[in-house]
Amino acid sequence: MDALARLNRPRRHIGVFSMFALAFLLIWIALAVYQALRPLPTGMSFAGPLRPAGDLALLTDQTYRSADGEPVSEQQIFDEVFRLIDQARKLIVVDMFLFNEFAAEDSYRPLTTQMTEALIAARQAQPGIEVVLITDPFNHLYGGLRSPHLEQLAESGVQVVYTNVDRLPASNPVWSGLWMLCCSWVGNNPDGGWLPNPVADEDVTLRTYLHLLNFRANHRKTLVVDQGDDWVGLITSANPQDASSRHSNNAIRFSGAAVLDLLQTERAVSSMSDAAIGANWPAPPAPVPVSPDPAIQILTEGAIRDALLAMINSSERGDRLDMEVFYLSHRPVIDALISAHQRGVTIRAILDPNRDAFGREKNGIPNRQAAWDLHKAGIDLRWCFTQGEQCHRKWIRLDRANGGAELISGSANFTRRNLDDLNLETSVRLVATQHPVLDESRQVFEKVWSNADGATYSQPYDEFADHSWARYALYRLMEATGISTF
Fold first, then answer.
1. Exposure on the CB side of residue 90, measured as CA atoms within 13 A
2. Mean pLDDT of 34-56
3. Domains identified in the chain and CATH numbers
4. How far is CA 329 from CA 19, 460, 474, 481, in A?
5. pTM of the entire predicted model
């Protein structure tokens, strides 16, 4: 009997362990599903009405090689941002994803310092002005690092709001379910680092890495200021980050009621982050039933996807679609582009080769794999010519054969994470028959596509073509699961 008992005891231990392991697995799966399916906070995925567009301007940053091979970086975006901040008298609301000096040795311009100084100067010049900076917790590595710039802004009276990204649906639910079970309650310590920092010099804690793997982000890049008796907004793909200062980007500036729609979307971010601000901000007026020309529409999160797909799917034979995108991987967008091409729509795509990332070399995923799909369908493609910087634009323009045109531009890459109600994003849709901004956008695209004046802006598809089935399968897995940085 004793021998029989000894034989049975390990089996009972194995049985108890299996029950605990099964319970842990079921809880993990349940939390992963909950994190993936949790609804967006109130006020997100916003599609504003079409509003009259005033004071419209296209601003571009462009890095390229001149005809004699010299690097050139032309910058407009933050010069205009700083001008708008300087003239404001009542309210400045900035929402920017990256606000740091990480990897600054590869920088062209100290944008983080310049933005910090501009906001502090506005506070000093106008003591009664309300200045708000909304940003992503990545900039202090989720509490694992001190941010001198953000601390300096807070000390000067700027209201610094760290977006509560934990309230967003999970971009990487496989990890976020486990994170919620094991680690989300632990907190962090900016003085307790002992692991190499992935983006800066100071060591960080393990908790920083664990938080980072959730891949949640407030990826918006917006500005709202008063200008006399009116309001001015700016929506861009550019970050006030030193290491991003050589990237090619674009921005749309506009005035009027659409700016108050934009302000309303920023009030929603403040509310989800439990920031006690925005109560006195002006509300947008009721929409006018007549469709203006030109017209501006504010789009956030999944509403960007819906407008993007509606634009592509509405294109017809004889129309032209031009796009320049940092990340392209969203399967419905790729399928819509191929279908449009098959209908007789002329499509040209300029993509970043996904080679450079703040001094590190990447493997080309996802753009080279998405480009392969488009190339096989017969769509014309070129790669941005990059030498350490990124082709960071996210814009697409439809020129209709009947003379109408649409342009969608902003922070959202064409990926699952950026378009499917996961990241916070803001883009703007411009609809017009004719307008100088549309003309300028065509000129910018043509310059890059054709390497105007002997300069080098782009390269042919064969330069970075990647027809590896293994990397293609990896791209599809990463896009579907969210286990990726795009």
1. 13
2. 94
3. 51-267 (3.30.870.10), 293-481 (3.30.870.10)
4. 40, 20, 12, 13
5. 0.93
